[in-house]
Amino acid sequence: FFREKIEVIHDGINTQIACPNPNAQLRLKTQSGSEIKLTCNDEIVTFVNRNLEPYRGFHIFMRAVPEILKQRPNVRILILGDSEKGYGASPSPSKYGQKTWREIFTSEVSPTISADDWSRVHFLGKVSYSNFLSIMQLSSVHVYLSYPFVMSWSLLEAMSAGAAVVASSTGPVLEVIEGDFNGELVNFFDQVDLALRVCRLLKEADRRMYLSTNARQTIIESYDLHGICLPKQVDWVNRIAKSRD
Predict the structure, then answer these.
(1) DSSP-assigned letters across all residues of the chain
(2) pLDDT band at residue 5, thresholds of 50, 70 and 90?
(3) Looking at the predicted structure, is the pLDDT value of residue 245 above 90?
(4) How far is residue 28's CA from residue 235's CA, in Å, rounded to a whole number?
(5) Residue 41's pLDDT is what?
């Protein structure tokens, strides 16, 4: 009875702001205190959670990091997100004490990573929206993992900014990502395949360009704020108002 009365309209992505920028750059402080400048010529893997947690696949990503660092000696891994309580359960105090998910999973993988390699992993915490967009514009490969749950805006904005995406084959990610067209899909729990696909994309510039071009076009055609979503929202409100006349 209610189904025919329901419409699903996304809030919309401002594709004029979340757009590719070949001149994007970011300055980062290293663990040693020195400063580096990252540009689109650098090899950059990005991962974003509002809060770093298993619900959004942080544990799977971290388990793939050692192999990515091993295979790609020039890659920089940028991890965005806080360590507060997220959508899922917090770590069990009886098992982990007061440790955060970030501390738990970095402790798990760091013994397998050399100090030099670990220096190429950057935890950036919360960042401003403008810095977030710059990071997405710089991203060579963006990794997005999630339990079947609400899809993050960050995925759509990364696609709009022109990032090549490797994502988990889970709902509702499958509503947006079509494997081998506008992104690559992996089994959520398969960190070996995740690392393999990320490394392969870092090697294959033509494939990255193909996926990123199609990703941005997907957002423009289906999720653009001004061209698609806002007009649908206005039309919906007008139809409701007219039905009440």
Answers:
(1) --GGG-------B-TTTS---TT-EEEEE-TTS-EEEEETTS-EEEEEEEE--GGGTHHHHHHHHHHHHHH-TT-EEEEEEE-S--SSPPPPHHHHTT--HHHHHHHHHGGGS-HHHHTTEEEEES--HHHHHHHHHH-SEEEE---SSPPPHHHHHHHHTT-EEEEES-TTGGGT--BTTTBEEE-TT-HHHHHHHHHHHHH-HHHHHHHHHHHHHHHHHHTBIIIIIHHHHHHHHHHHHHHT-
(2) confident
(3) no
(4) 45
(5) 96
pLDDT in the model for residue 160:
98
Position 63, amino acid: R
Strands 76-82 and 164-168 turn out to be unpaired
Q: Which pairing describes strands 25-29 and 121-125: parallel, antiparallel, or unpaired?
A: unpaired
**Which tokens go with 76?**
């920089």
Sign of the alpha-carbon torsion through 53, 59, 64, 68: positive
Q: Residue 78: count other Cβ atoms within 10 Å of its Cβ.
A: 23
pLDDT for residue 171: 95
pLDDT score, position 31: 75
List beta partners, residue 122: 78
Residue with tokens 């974003």: 48
Average pLDDT rounded to a whole number, residues 37-56: 97
Dihedral of CA atoms 21, 48, 37, 111 in degrees, nearest 10, equals -150
Q: Residue 29: its pLDDT value, please?
A: 85
Residue 55 contacts residue 146 (beta carbons within 8 Å): yes
